[in-house]
Amino acid sequence: MNFNDYFYLQRYSIAKKGAILAYNSAIKHQHLDESELKELSWQKTKKLLMHAYENVEWYHETFKKLDLHPNDISKPEYYAQVPILKRQDIICNFEKFIAKGTGSKDLNYITTGGSSGEPLKIGVNKHRIREVQKWQMFNWWDTPLNANIASVYRGLPLGGLKALALGGINWPQKVIRLDATQITPDKIKNFITKYKRIRPKIIHGYVGAVDAIADYILEYNITFDFKPNAIWLTAAPVTKVQESKISKAFNNASICDQYGCSEIYFIASECTHKKGLHIFADSVKLEIVDNSNKIVDYNQQGKIILTNLDEYSFPLIRYENGDEGRLLKERCTCGMSLPLLGKVKGRISDNLILPDGTILSGEYLTTIFDDYTDIVRQFQIVQKKDLSITVKICLYDINKSHRINKEIYKQLETRIDKQVPFKIEIVTKIESNKGKLRYIIKEN
Ligand SMILES: [Zn+2]
User: Fold this and answer.
1) Neighbours of ion ligand 1 (CB under 5 A)
2) 216 alpha carbon – ligand 1 mean position (Å)
3) pTM metric for this prediction
4) Dist. CA 233 → ligand 1 center (Å)
5) Are 207 and 435 in contact (CB under 8 A)?
6) Under a CB-based contact definition with an 8 Å cutoff, are residues 303 and 321 in contact?
C-alpha cells in the first residue's frame, strides 16, 4: 500500500475502526488460489449459518421447521438445503431478521422500491465498513483512494456536521455531484464546467444518467484534454450501445460495469481486462439456480441467489434478488482469482411473453443492438397491455434509419412470428426515469 492510501485509510479509521486491515485482507484475498478462496468463503458461510441459527429468529424457525441444524450443512454441497429467501419473506417478517443484541442504533435502513411495487426494507450494520470493495476497485484501476470523483447519483450529499467530518477525512479529495434524479440541460452544463475544473480520475454513476450527460457532450461537441481512469457505472446493466457512446463522450475512457443491488451493493465488478465481472467472493456468496432452485452449470443462465457473508445484524442468506445471470468458467487474464459473473443483462421481470408462451428474454433483447453501437444512441422496448411490442430507437444519424429498421425488423420478426402487433419507431429522445433508463418496459 502506498503512503497516500495508507494515510487515507488511517483517517477513515477514525470514524470506523479496522479500515486498513479490511482493505489489506481484501487485496490479499483477490490473489488467493481458487481452492483457498473457496475454503475462505466456506468457513465464513458456516460461521454465518451458525450465528443466524442461534441469534436470528427467522433462520432459527426455518431450520427447526425443516428439522435441519447448521451442523448438518457440513460440506459446501449441502448448502443448497438452506431454503431460498424471497423478498416477500423479508417484507412480511422484517423484525425476525434482526439478530439478537442488535439495537436500533446499530442499524441503518435501506428501502428499495423495485419494479414489482411493494417496497422492501432491510437493515445493515452501521459499524460495518461497506466501502472495502470500492477501494478494491480503485486498486484495480490504479487510482488513489482519495482521487477526485464526479458522482452522478441519487440524492444530495449529507449536510451539516456529517459532511464536515467526511470532508476532513477525505481532504484533499474533491467530489462533484449531479443528482441523477433531476437532470436538466442546465445542470449538465454546470456539471461539465466543474468536471473540467477538478479533472476527476473516476466518474461514478447511474447508467441512465451518465448516458444523458454523454448525449449532451456529443450533441454540443464538447471535448476534454484529459480522461478519467474509469467510468464506473451501476444500477442497471450497461448495454454495448451505451458503453460505446459514454466512452466516446469522455475521451475514450474505459467503462467499468459494476453489479449490485440495494440490498447488497457490491456483488461483482469488471476489472480493466473486462473478461466478466469479478465476484467479491470473500464477502458475498453468489449461486445461480434454475426455476426449480437447482444449481446450474457454468454458462447457464438462472436466478441469482446471494448470501452476504459479512452482515451479521440482519443476515441475508440465499436471498433471491430477482436478477438473472450466469457464472463463467474462464479465468480473467488480470491474474486475480475472484470468479467471474457474466454481464447481468436483465431482470426476470424484463422478459416479454408472447401469446403461445414463447419468452423473449430480457437478456436477448438488450443485446439486439450490440452490432450497431455506431448507429444507435438509445433504445427501449415496450410491451403494451394488449401484448403489442414497440421498439423505440434513437439514432446518431437519422439517415441510417432505413438500414437499422430493416435489420432489427428482420431479427425480431421471426421470433415474434406474427403473434402480436410489432413496430419500430425512430424517436429523437428516450426519457429516463429519475436517472434510471429502462431498456425493457412491460405495461400493465
Ligand atoms: Zn480481471
Assistant:
1) 271, 273, 332, 334
2) 32
3) 0.85
4) 17
5) no
6) no
Q: How many CA atoms lie within 13 A of 6 on its CB side?
A: 3
> Ligand 1 center to residue 412 CA distance, Å?
34
Architecture of the domain spanning 351-442? 2-Layer Sandwich (3.30)
Q: Separation of 2 CA from ligand 1 center, angstroms?
A: 22
What does the alpha-carbon distance between residue 38 and residue 40 come to, in Å, rounded to a whole number?
5
Q: How far is the CA of 29 from the centre of ligand 1 (A)?
A: 14
Residue 149 in 3-state DSSP?
strand
Angle (CA) 380 382 387, round 5°: 160
CA dist 326 and 12 (Å) reads: 36
Quote the ligand 1 centre to 336 CA distance (angstroms). Answer: 6
Residue with cell 437447482: 294
Instruction: Find cell 454441497 and name the residue.
Output: 77
For 98-122, what is each residue's pLDDT tens digit? 999 998 889 998 887 654 456 788 9
Say if residue 191 is exposed, middle or buried (CB neighbours under 10 Å; 0-12, 13-18, 19+): buried
